Protein backbone atom coordinates (compact mmCIF):
# COMPACT_ATOMS: atom_id res chain seq x y z
CA UNK A 1 0.00 0.00 0.00
CA UNK A 2 2.71 2.45 -0.96
CA UNK A 3 0.30 5.36 -1.19
CA UNK A 4 -1.55 4.29 1.97
CA UNK A 5 1.60 3.53 3.97
CA UNK A 6 1.51 4.92 7.49
CA UNK A 7 5.22 4.31 8.07
CA UNK A 8 6.76 7.69 7.28
CA UNK A 9 3.96 10.27 7.28
CA UNK A 10 2.00 12.05 9.99
CA UNK A 11 -1.72 12.47 9.51
CA UNK A 12 -4.50 14.03 11.56
CA UNK A 13 -8.25 13.93 11.22
CA UNK A 14 -11.70 13.85 12.73
CA UNK A 15 -14.04 10.99 13.66
CA UNK A 16 -17.65 11.79 12.81
CA UNK A 17 -20.43 9.72 11.25
CA UNK A 18 -22.51 11.07 8.34
CA UNK A 19 -25.66 10.84 10.51
CA UNK A 20 -24.20 13.73 12.56
CA UNK A 21 -23.93 16.25 9.73
CA UNK A 22 -26.19 19.31 9.65
CA UNK A 23 -29.11 19.13 7.26
CA UNK A 24 -32.84 19.69 6.78
CA UNK A 25 -34.26 16.17 7.01
CA UNK A 26 -33.74 15.02 10.59
CA UNK A 27 -30.48 13.17 10.04
CA UNK A 28 -27.11 13.96 8.52
CA UNK A 29 -26.73 12.71 4.97
CA UNK A 30 -24.44 12.65 1.92
CA UNK A 31 -25.60 16.03 0.70
CA UNK A 32 -24.38 19.59 1.23
CA UNK A 33 -23.57 19.10 4.93
CA UNK A 34 -21.14 16.31 4.05
CA UNK A 35 -19.40 18.41 1.40
CA UNK A 36 -19.12 21.35 3.80
CA UNK A 37 -17.53 19.03 6.34
CA UNK A 38 -14.94 17.91 3.78
CA UNK A 39 -14.24 21.58 3.03
CA UNK A 40 -13.90 22.17 6.77
CA UNK A 41 -11.31 19.38 6.99
CA UNK A 42 -9.34 20.84 4.10
CA UNK A 43 -9.35 24.37 5.54
CA UNK A 44 -8.29 22.92 8.91
CA UNK A 45 -5.25 21.26 7.34
CA UNK A 46 -6.54 17.77 8.18
CA UNK A 47 -6.27 14.77 5.89
CA UNK A 48 -8.29 11.99 7.57
CA UNK A 49 -12.02 11.45 8.05
CA UNK A 50 -13.04 8.43 10.12
CA UNK A 51 -16.61 7.10 9.99
CA UNK A 52 -18.53 4.40 11.82
CA UNK A 53 -19.83 1.42 9.80
CA UNK A 54 -21.92 2.66 6.87
CA UNK A 55 -24.35 -0.25 6.74
CA UNK A 56 -28.13 -0.44 6.63
CA UNK A 57 -29.00 -0.46 10.31
CA UNK A 58 -31.68 -2.59 11.90
CA UNK A 59 -33.35 -2.70 15.31
CA UNK A 60 -31.61 -0.38 17.77
CA UNK A 61 -30.13 1.81 15.01
CA UNK A 62 -26.60 0.59 15.77
CA UNK A 63 -24.15 0.79 12.87
CA UNK A 64 -22.53 -2.31 14.38
CA UNK A 65 -25.68 -4.42 13.80
CA UNK A 66 -26.53 -3.88 10.11
CA UNK A 67 -28.76 -6.01 7.89
CA UNK A 68 -25.86 -6.48 5.48
CA UNK A 69 -22.07 -6.28 5.44
CA UNK A 70 -22.23 -4.70 1.99
CA UNK A 71 -25.37 -2.55 1.69
CA UNK A 72 -25.28 1.14 2.59
CA UNK A 73 -27.49 3.08 5.00
CA UNK A 74 -30.59 4.36 3.14
CA UNK A 75 -31.22 6.99 5.82
CA UNK A 76 -28.14 8.98 4.77
CA UNK A 77 -29.12 9.21 1.10
CA UNK A 78 -29.30 12.93 0.29
CA UNK A 79 -32.81 14.09 -0.53
CA UNK A 80 -32.10 17.38 -2.30
CA UNK A 81 -30.64 15.72 -5.44
CA UNK A 82 -33.91 13.77 -5.79
CA UNK A 83 -35.91 17.00 -5.55
CA UNK A 84 -33.67 18.68 -8.10
CA UNK A 85 -34.07 15.72 -10.45
CA UNK A 86 -37.85 15.88 -10.37
CA UNK A 87 -38.34 12.63 -8.49
CA UNK A 88 -39.72 14.46 -5.46
CA UNK A 89 -42.16 17.38 -5.48
CA UNK A 90 -42.66 20.23 -3.02
CA UNK A 91 -45.97 18.68 -1.95
CA UNK A 92 -44.07 15.63 -0.67
CA UNK A 93 -42.67 17.77 2.14
CA UNK A 94 -45.89 19.33 3.41
CA UNK A 95 -46.09 16.93 6.34
CA UNK A 96 -42.38 16.97 7.20
CA UNK A 97 -41.96 16.78 10.99
CA UNK A 98 -40.18 19.39 13.07
CA UNK A 99 -36.67 18.08 13.67
CA UNK A 100 -34.36 18.33 16.63
CA UNK A 101 -31.25 19.88 15.02
CA UNK A 102 -28.88 18.16 17.47
CA UNK A 103 -30.41 14.70 17.80
CA UNK A 104 -31.55 12.08 15.31
CA UNK A 105 -35.07 10.93 16.18
CA UNK A 106 -34.84 7.63 14.36
CA UNK A 107 -38.52 6.66 14.48
CA UNK A 108 -39.64 9.88 12.79
CA UNK A 109 -36.70 9.88 10.38
CA UNK A 110 -37.24 6.29 9.25
CA UNK A 111 -40.94 6.88 8.54
CA UNK A 112 -40.46 10.17 6.70
CA UNK A 113 -37.34 9.40 4.65
CA UNK A 114 -38.50 5.91 3.71
CA UNK A 115 -41.71 7.47 2.42
CA UNK A 116 -39.72 9.92 0.31
CA UNK A 117 -37.46 7.22 -1.11
CA UNK A 118 -40.47 5.10 -2.06
CA UNK A 119 -42.13 8.06 -3.80
CA UNK A 120 -38.91 8.78 -5.71
CA UNK A 121 -38.70 5.14 -6.81
CA UNK A 122 -42.32 5.03 -7.98
CA UNK A 123 -41.83 8.14 -10.07
CA UNK A 124 -38.67 6.66 -11.53
CA UNK A 125 -40.60 3.53 -12.51
CA UNK A 126 -43.54 5.48 -13.92
CA UNK A 127 -41.43 7.65 -16.22
CA UNK A 128 -40.55 6.83 -19.78
CA UNK A 129 -36.87 5.90 -20.17
CA UNK A 130 -36.02 9.21 -21.84
CA UNK A 131 -37.62 11.13 -18.96
CA UNK A 132 -36.12 9.19 -16.09
CA UNK A 133 -34.08 11.17 -13.61
CA UNK A 134 -34.36 14.44 -15.54
CA UNK A 135 -33.68 12.76 -18.91
CA UNK A 136 -30.40 11.44 -17.49
CA UNK A 137 -29.82 8.29 -19.53
CA UNK A 138 -26.36 8.08 -17.98
CA UNK A 139 -28.05 7.51 -14.61
CA UNK A 140 -30.16 4.69 -16.07
CA UNK A 141 -27.14 3.02 -17.65
CA UNK A 142 -25.13 3.34 -14.44
CA UNK A 143 -28.00 1.78 -12.46
CA UNK A 144 -28.13 -1.19 -14.83
CA UNK A 145 -24.35 -1.58 -14.63
CA UNK A 146 -24.53 -1.46 -10.81
CA UNK A 147 -27.09 -4.28 -10.79
CA UNK A 148 -24.90 -6.38 -13.08
CA UNK A 149 -21.63 -5.86 -11.17
CA UNK A 150 -22.52 -6.03 -7.47
CA UNK A 151 -22.87 -9.71 -6.69
CA UNK A 152 -24.20 -9.10 -3.15
CA UNK A 153 -27.09 -6.96 -4.37
CA UNK A 154 -29.66 -9.62 -5.33
CA UNK A 155 -29.49 -11.50 -2.03
CA UNK A 156 -29.70 -8.25 -0.07
CA UNK A 157 -32.62 -6.91 -2.11
CA UNK A 158 -34.54 -10.18 -1.87
CA UNK A 159 -33.84 -10.42 1.88
CA UNK A 160 -35.14 -6.90 2.50
CA UNK A 161 -38.16 -7.42 0.22
CA UNK A 162 -39.12 -10.62 2.05
CA UNK A 163 -38.58 -8.89 5.40
CA UNK A 164 -40.91 -6.14 4.20
CA UNK A 165 -43.43 -8.78 3.04
CA UNK A 166 -43.44 -10.35 6.53
CA UNK A 167 -43.75 -6.96 8.30
CA UNK A 168 -40.17 -6.90 9.54
CA UNK A 169 -40.13 -10.43 10.94
CA UNK A 170 -36.58 -11.87 11.31
CA UNK A 171 -35.58 -14.42 8.68
CA UNK A 172 -35.46 -17.37 11.08
CA UNK A 173 -39.24 -16.96 11.60
CA UNK A 174 -40.13 -16.91 7.89
CA UNK A 175 -41.87 -19.79 6.16
CA UNK A 176 -39.55 -22.60 5.05
CA UNK A 177 -39.79 -21.83 1.32
CA UNK A 178 -37.73 -18.68 1.92
CA UNK A 179 -36.21 -19.35 5.32
CA UNK A 180 -34.16 -22.18 3.77
CA UNK A 181 -34.85 -21.74 0.06
CA UNK A 182 -33.66 -23.74 -2.89
CA UNK A 183 -32.41 -21.76 -5.88
CA UNK A 184 -35.80 -22.25 -7.56
CA UNK A 185 -37.64 -21.03 -4.50
CA UNK A 186 -35.43 -17.94 -4.33
CA UNK A 187 -36.20 -17.29 -7.99
CA UNK A 188 -39.94 -17.70 -7.34
CA UNK A 189 -39.83 -15.24 -4.44
CA UNK A 190 -37.75 -12.85 -6.52
CA UNK A 191 -40.48 -12.84 -9.18
CA UNK A 192 -43.27 -12.61 -6.62
CA UNK A 193 -41.71 -9.56 -4.95
CA UNK A 194 -39.99 -8.16 -8.04
CA UNK A 195 -41.17 -4.58 -7.59
CA UNK A 196 -40.03 -4.38 -3.96
CA UNK A 197 -36.76 -6.11 -4.85
CA UNK A 198 -36.14 -3.45 -7.49
CA UNK A 199 -36.87 -0.71 -4.93
CA UNK A 200 -34.10 -1.98 -2.65
CA UNK A 201 -31.72 -2.17 -5.62
CA UNK A 202 -32.64 1.40 -6.48
CA UNK A 203 -31.93 2.84 -3.02
CA UNK A 204 -28.62 0.98 -2.86
CA UNK A 205 -27.65 2.50 -6.17
CA UNK A 206 -28.52 5.96 -4.84
CA UNK A 207 -26.33 5.35 -1.81
CA UNK A 208 -23.52 3.95 -3.97
CA UNK A 209 -23.65 6.87 -6.41
CA UNK A 210 -23.75 9.55 -3.72
CA UNK A 211 -21.08 7.96 -1.52
CA UNK A 212 -18.55 7.54 -4.32
CA UNK A 213 -19.12 11.09 -5.54
CA UNK A 214 -18.42 12.31 -1.99
CA UNK A 215 -15.38 10.05 -1.62
CA UNK A 216 -13.95 11.31 -4.91
CA UNK A 217 -14.47 14.89 -3.72
CA UNK A 218 -12.65 14.14 -0.46
CA UNK A 219 -9.80 12.26 -2.12
CA UNK A 220 -9.26 15.08 -4.62
CA UNK A 221 -8.72 17.38 -1.64
CA UNK A 222 -6.12 15.01 -0.20
CA UNK A 223 -8.46 13.58 2.44
CA UNK A 224 -8.46 9.82 3.07
CA UNK A 225 -11.44 8.04 4.62
CA UNK A 226 -11.15 5.46 7.39
CA UNK A 227 -14.03 2.99 7.38
CA UNK A 228 -15.07 0.52 10.07
CA UNK A 229 -15.87 -3.21 9.90
CA UNK A 230 -17.70 -4.92 12.77
CA UNK A 231 -16.07 -8.31 13.33
CA UNK A 232 -19.43 -10.03 13.86
CA UNK A 233 -22.67 -9.70 11.90
CA UNK A 234 -26.27 -9.49 13.09
CA UNK A 235 -28.22 -12.73 13.36
CA UNK A 236 -31.09 -11.14 11.44
CA UNK A 237 -28.95 -10.23 8.44
CA UNK A 238 -28.63 -11.29 4.84
CA UNK A 239 -25.07 -12.38 5.67
CA UNK A 240 -26.34 -15.18 7.91
CA UNK A 241 -29.49 -15.99 5.91
CA UNK A 242 -27.61 -16.41 2.63
CA UNK A 243 -24.49 -18.08 4.11
CA UNK A 244 -25.80 -20.34 6.88
CA UNK A 245 -22.99 -22.88 6.57
CA UNK A 246 -20.45 -20.17 7.49
CA UNK A 247 -22.05 -19.67 10.93
CA UNK A 248 -22.49 -21.86 14.00
CA UNK A 249 -26.23 -22.52 13.61
CA UNK A 250 -28.55 -25.43 14.33
CA UNK A 251 -30.91 -26.95 11.75
CA UNK A 252 -33.59 -24.35 12.53
CA UNK A 253 -31.25 -21.41 11.95
CA UNK A 254 -30.73 -20.61 15.63
CA UNK A 255 -27.20 -19.97 16.92
CA UNK A 256 -25.51 -22.71 18.90
CA UNK A 257 -23.15 -20.14 20.38
CA UNK A 258 -23.14 -16.35 20.39
CA UNK A 259 -20.53 -13.62 20.78
CA UNK A 260 -19.61 -11.58 23.82
CA UNK A 261 -16.76 -10.86 26.20
CA UNK A 262 -16.13 -12.45 29.61
CA UNK A 263 -16.54 -10.84 33.03
CA UNK A 264 -13.92 -8.20 33.79
CA UNK A 265 -13.27 -5.13 35.91
CA UNK A 266 -16.07 -3.24 34.14
CA UNK A 267 -18.77 -5.95 34.26
CA UNK A 268 -19.00 -8.87 36.64
CA UNK A 269 -21.19 -10.80 34.17
CA UNK A 270 -19.36 -9.80 30.98
CA UNK A 271 -21.06 -8.48 27.85
CA UNK A 272 -23.48 -10.66 25.88
CA UNK A 273 -23.66 -9.34 22.32
CA UNK A 274 -25.75 -12.16 20.88
CA UNK A 275 -24.22 -12.27 17.38
CA UNK A 276 -23.91 -15.75 15.85
CA UNK A 277 -20.32 -16.94 15.72
CA UNK A 278 -18.40 -17.96 12.64
CA UNK A 279 -17.81 -21.57 11.76
CA UNK A 280 -14.20 -20.79 10.91
CA UNK A 281 -13.51 -24.27 9.55
CA UNK A 282 -15.96 -23.55 6.70
CA UNK A 283 -14.36 -20.17 5.99
CA UNK A 284 -10.95 -21.82 5.82
CA UNK A 285 -12.19 -24.33 3.22
CA UNK A 286 -13.12 -21.45 0.90
CA UNK A 287 -9.89 -19.54 1.45
CA UNK A 288 -11.91 -16.98 3.44
CA UNK A 289 -13.77 -16.02 0.29
CA UNK A 290 -16.66 -14.27 2.11
CA UNK A 291 -14.30 -12.26 4.33
CA UNK A 292 -12.06 -11.27 1.42
CA UNK A 293 -15.10 -10.10 -0.59
CA UNK A 294 -16.27 -8.12 2.42
CA UNK A 295 -12.91 -6.43 2.92
CA UNK A 296 -12.43 -5.72 -0.78
CA UNK A 297 -15.81 -4.00 -0.93
CA UNK A 298 -15.22 -1.96 2.22
CA UNK A 299 -11.85 -0.88 0.81
CA UNK A 300 -13.72 0.49 -2.19
CA UNK A 301 -15.85 2.56 0.18
CA UNK A 302 -12.87 3.74 2.24
CA UNK A 303 -9.11 4.13 1.98
CA UNK A 304 -8.42 2.35 5.28
CA UNK A 305 -10.63 0.16 7.45
CA UNK A 306 -10.67 -0.32 11.20
CA UNK A 307 -11.28 -3.94 12.24
CA UNK A 308 -13.52 -3.87 15.28
CA UNK A 309 -12.75 -6.33 18.12
CA UNK A 310 -9.45 -7.39 16.57
CA UNK A 311 -8.75 -9.83 19.40
CA UNK A 312 -11.58 -12.01 18.04
CA UNK A 313 -9.35 -13.03 15.14
CA UNK A 314 -7.01 -14.67 17.67
CA UNK A 315 -9.55 -16.05 20.16
CA UNK A 316 -13.24 -15.32 20.63
CA UNK A 317 -15.54 -15.73 23.63
CA UNK A 318 -18.26 -18.28 22.79
CA UNK A 319 -21.41 -18.29 24.95
CA UNK A 320 -24.05 -21.03 24.62
CA UNK A 321 -27.21 -19.62 23.05
CA UNK A 322 -29.89 -18.95 25.64
CA UNK A 323 -27.57 -17.86 28.44
CA UNK A 324 -28.73 -14.68 30.18
CA UNK A 325 -25.18 -13.37 30.70
CA UNK A 326 -21.75 -13.89 29.13
CA UNK A 327 -20.33 -15.47 32.28
CA UNK A 328 -20.59 -19.11 31.12
CA UNK A 329 -18.66 -18.79 27.89
CA UNK A 330 -15.25 -20.07 26.89
CA UNK A 331 -12.35 -18.93 24.74
CA UNK A 332 -12.16 -20.59 21.33
CA UNK A 333 -9.20 -20.31 18.98
CA UNK A 334 -9.71 -18.36 15.74
CA UNK A 335 -7.59 -18.81 12.57
CA UNK A 336 -5.43 -15.76 13.28
CA UNK A 337 -2.19 -16.07 11.31
CA UNK A 338 -3.72 -18.23 8.59
CA UNK A 339 -6.54 -15.72 8.06
CA UNK A 340 -4.28 -12.68 7.80
CA UNK A 341 -1.82 -14.55 5.57
CA UNK A 342 -4.67 -15.02 3.09
CA UNK A 343 -5.65 -11.36 3.44
CA UNK A 344 -2.09 -10.21 2.88
CA UNK A 345 -1.84 -12.32 -0.27
CA UNK A 346 -4.99 -10.62 -1.55
CA UNK A 347 -4.64 -7.05 -0.29
CA UNK A 348 -0.87 -6.68 -0.50
CA UNK A 349 1.97 -6.58 2.01
CA UNK A 350 0.95 -3.27 3.62
CA UNK A 351 -2.72 -3.95 4.36
CA UNK A 352 -4.67 -0.69 4.89
CA UNK A 353 -6.10 -2.00 8.16
CA UNK A 354 -6.26 -0.61 11.70
CA UNK A 355 -6.72 -3.00 14.63
CA UNK A 356 -9.17 -2.13 17.40
CA UNK A 357 -7.01 -3.70 20.10
CA UNK A 358 -8.63 -2.20 23.20
CA UNK A 359 -9.77 -3.93 26.37
CA UNK A 360 -8.17 -7.02 27.86
CA UNK A 361 -5.58 -8.12 25.30
CA UNK A 362 -3.43 -11.22 25.56
CA UNK A 363 0.14 -11.27 24.21
CA UNK A 364 -0.91 -13.52 21.31
CA UNK A 365 -3.21 -10.76 20.02
CA UNK A 366 -0.36 -8.25 20.00
CA UNK A 367 1.90 -10.79 18.32
CA UNK A 368 -0.71 -11.29 15.59
CA UNK A 369 -1.09 -7.54 15.11
CA UNK A 370 2.65 -6.92 14.96
CA UNK A 371 3.46 -9.89 12.73
CA UNK A 372 1.46 -8.23 9.93
CA UNK A 373 2.50 -4.67 10.80
CA UNK A 374 -1.07 -3.61 11.59
CA UNK A 375 -1.33 -0.40 13.63
CA UNK A 376 -3.29 -0.55 16.87
CA UNK A 377 -5.14 2.13 18.84
CA UNK A 378 -3.99 4.34 21.71
CA UNK A 379 -6.75 6.22 23.57
CA UNK A 380 -5.41 9.06 25.69
CA UNK A 381 -8.44 9.15 27.98
CA UNK A 382 -7.58 5.61 29.13
CA UNK A 383 -4.11 6.74 30.15
CA UNK A 384 -5.55 8.91 32.90
CA UNK A 385 -8.35 6.60 34.04
CA UNK A 386 -5.55 4.36 35.29
CA UNK A 387 -3.54 6.05 38.07
CA UNK A 388 -0.53 3.85 37.32
CA UNK A 389 1.95 3.77 34.44
CA UNK A 390 0.16 2.31 31.40
CA UNK A 391 0.38 1.86 27.65
CA UNK A 392 -2.10 4.66 26.83
CA UNK A 393 -0.01 7.54 28.15
CA UNK A 394 1.44 9.68 25.35
CA UNK A 395 5.04 8.80 26.15
CA UNK A 396 4.21 5.15 25.45
CA UNK A 397 2.79 5.71 21.98
CA UNK A 398 4.62 4.09 19.07
CA UNK A 399 4.81 5.35 15.50
CA UNK A 400 2.78 2.53 13.99
CA UNK A 401 -0.45 3.29 15.82
CA UNK A 402 -3.47 5.57 15.72
CA UNK A 403 -3.80 7.97 18.65
CA UNK A 404 -7.27 9.08 19.79
CA UNK A 405 -8.46 11.47 22.48
CA UNK A 406 -11.42 9.11 23.01
CA UNK A 407 -13.68 6.83 20.94
CA UNK A 408 -17.33 6.45 19.97
CA UNK A 409 -17.90 3.93 22.78
CA UNK A 410 -16.61 6.25 25.51
CA UNK A 411 -17.66 9.52 27.03
CA UNK A 412 -16.41 12.71 25.45
CA UNK A 413 -13.22 14.16 26.95
CA UNK A 414 -15.15 16.93 28.73
CA UNK A 415 -17.89 14.59 29.95
CA UNK A 416 -15.30 12.15 31.27
CA UNK A 417 -13.27 14.89 32.96
CA UNK A 418 -16.35 16.27 34.71
CA UNK A 419 -17.24 12.86 36.18
CA UNK A 420 -13.97 10.96 36.64
CA UNK A 421 -12.16 10.45 39.95
CA UNK A 422 -10.17 13.36 41.30
CA UNK A 423 -6.98 11.31 41.12
CA UNK A 424 -7.51 11.02 37.34
CA UNK A 425 -8.01 14.77 36.98
CA UNK A 426 -4.98 15.40 39.19
CA UNK A 427 -2.83 13.07 37.12
CA UNK A 428 -3.88 14.80 33.89
CA UNK A 429 -3.25 18.28 35.31
CA UNK A 430 0.20 17.38 36.56
CA UNK A 431 1.12 15.48 33.39
CA UNK A 432 0.35 18.46 31.14
CA UNK A 433 1.08 21.21 33.66
CA UNK A 434 -2.41 22.64 33.20
CA UNK A 435 -5.28 23.77 35.39
CA UNK A 436 -7.72 21.65 33.35
CA UNK A 437 -9.60 24.69 32.09
CA UNK A 438 -9.24 23.69 28.43
CA UNK A 439 -9.04 19.93 28.86
CA UNK A 440 -10.40 19.02 25.40
CA UNK A 441 -7.72 20.97 23.58
CA UNK A 442 -5.08 19.83 26.05
CA UNK A 443 -5.74 16.26 24.87
CA UNK A 444 -6.11 17.30 21.22
CA UNK A 445 -2.65 18.87 21.35
CA UNK A 446 -1.32 15.76 23.11
CA UNK A 447 -2.86 13.57 20.43
CA UNK A 448 -1.45 15.63 17.55
CA UNK A 449 1.98 15.95 19.19
CA UNK A 450 2.34 12.20 19.82
CA UNK A 451 4.68 10.09 17.69
CA UNK A 452 1.69 8.16 16.32
CA UNK A 453 1.49 8.26 12.54
CA UNK A 454 -2.24 8.95 12.73
CA UNK A 455 -4.06 11.21 15.19
CA UNK A 456 -7.87 11.14 15.28
CA UNK A 457 -10.17 13.31 17.37
CA UNK A 458 -13.97 12.86 17.61
CA UNK A 459 -15.87 15.95 16.47
CA UNK A 460 -17.46 16.16 19.92
CA UNK A 461 -14.02 16.79 21.45
CA UNK A 462 -13.15 19.36 18.79
CA UNK A 463 -16.33 21.21 19.82
CA UNK A 464 -15.63 20.74 23.58
CA UNK A 465 -18.98 19.04 24.27
CA UNK A 466 -19.84 17.08 27.40
CA UNK A 467 -21.70 13.79 27.93
CA UNK A 468 -24.94 14.71 26.16
CA UNK A 469 -23.07 14.48 22.85
CA UNK A 470 -21.47 11.03 23.22
CA UNK A 471 -22.28 8.55 20.45
CA UNK A 472 -22.79 5.37 22.41
CA UNK A 473 -23.14 4.12 25.97
CA UNK A 474 -22.51 0.35 25.84
CA UNK A 475 -25.22 -1.64 27.58
CA UNK A 476 -27.79 1.15 27.26
CA UNK A 477 -30.44 0.42 24.64
CA UNK A 478 -31.92 3.83 23.90
CA UNK A 479 -30.59 7.19 22.78
CA UNK A 480 -27.37 6.06 21.12
CA UNK A 481 -25.94 7.06 17.71
CA UNK A 482 -28.14 10.18 17.70
CA UNK A 483 -25.79 13.18 18.13
CA UNK A 484 -25.67 15.90 15.45
CA UNK A 485 -23.85 19.19 15.14
CA UNK A 486 -24.85 22.49 13.56
CA UNK A 487 -23.59 24.15 10.41
CA UNK A 488 -22.27 27.13 12.36
CA UNK A 489 -20.06 24.80 14.42
CA UNK A 490 -17.74 24.54 11.41
CA UNK A 491 -16.51 28.10 11.72
CA UNK A 492 -13.39 29.97 10.68
CA UNK A 493 -12.09 30.24 14.25
CA UNK A 494 -12.16 26.46 14.67
CA UNK A 495 -10.57 25.90 11.26
CA UNK A 496 -7.72 28.20 12.19
CA UNK A 497 -7.17 26.56 15.58
CA UNK A 498 -7.09 23.06 14.07
CA UNK A 499 -4.83 24.20 11.23
CA UNK A 500 -2.30 25.81 13.54
CA UNK A 501 -2.29 22.78 15.87
CA UNK A 502 -1.86 20.31 13.04
CA UNK A 503 0.99 22.25 11.43
CA UNK A 504 2.73 22.90 14.75
CA UNK A 505 3.05 19.16 15.27
CA UNK A 506 3.95 18.23 11.70
CA UNK A 507 0.58 16.80 10.70
List keywords for this structure.
disordered N terminus; alpha/beta; 20 helices; 4-stranded antiparallel sheet; 12 strands; about 500 residues
SSE blueprint and pairings:
Layout: E1 11-15, H1 32-43, E2 48-50, H2 80-84, H3 106-126, H4 132-135, H5 137-149, H6 153-165, H7 176-179, H8 183-192, H9 194-220, E3 224-229, H10 238-242, E4 257-261, E5 271-276, H11 280-285, H12 289-301, E6 304-307, E7 315-320, E8 330-333, H13 337-347, E9 353-355, H14 363-371, E10 376-379, H15 380-385, E11 401-404, H16 413-419, H17 422-432, H18 439-449, E12 454-458, H19 459-462, H20 492-504
Parallel strand pairs: 1-2, 1-12, 2-3, 3-6, 6-9, 10-11, 11-12
Antiparallel strand pairs: 4-5, 4-7, 7-8
Structural summary, described in words:
This protein has 507 residues and is of the alpha/beta class. Helix content is 40%, strand content 11%. The strands form two sheets. Strands 9-6-3-2-1-12-11-10 form an eight-stranded parallel β-sheet. The chain has a four-stranded antiparallel β-sheet with strand order 5-4-7-8, with no helix packed on it. Helix 6 crosses helix 9. It is globular. 44% of the residues are buried. The N terminus is likely disordered.
Amino acid sequence: MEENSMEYNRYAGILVHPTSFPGDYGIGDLGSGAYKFVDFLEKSGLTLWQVLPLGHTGFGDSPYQPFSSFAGQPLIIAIDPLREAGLLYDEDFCDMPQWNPQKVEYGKVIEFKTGLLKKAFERYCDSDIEDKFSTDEEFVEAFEQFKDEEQWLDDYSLFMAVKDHFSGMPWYMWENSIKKPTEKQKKDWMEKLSHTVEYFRFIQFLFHKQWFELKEYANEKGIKIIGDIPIFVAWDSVDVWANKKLFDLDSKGYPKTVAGVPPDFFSETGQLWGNPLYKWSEHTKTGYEWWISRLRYQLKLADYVRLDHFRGFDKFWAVPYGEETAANGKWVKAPGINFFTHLEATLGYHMPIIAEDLGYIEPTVLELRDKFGIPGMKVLQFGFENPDENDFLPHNCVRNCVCYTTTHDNDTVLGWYQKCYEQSRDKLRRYYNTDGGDVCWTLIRACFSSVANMAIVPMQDVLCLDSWARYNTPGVGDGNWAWRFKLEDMNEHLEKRLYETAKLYGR
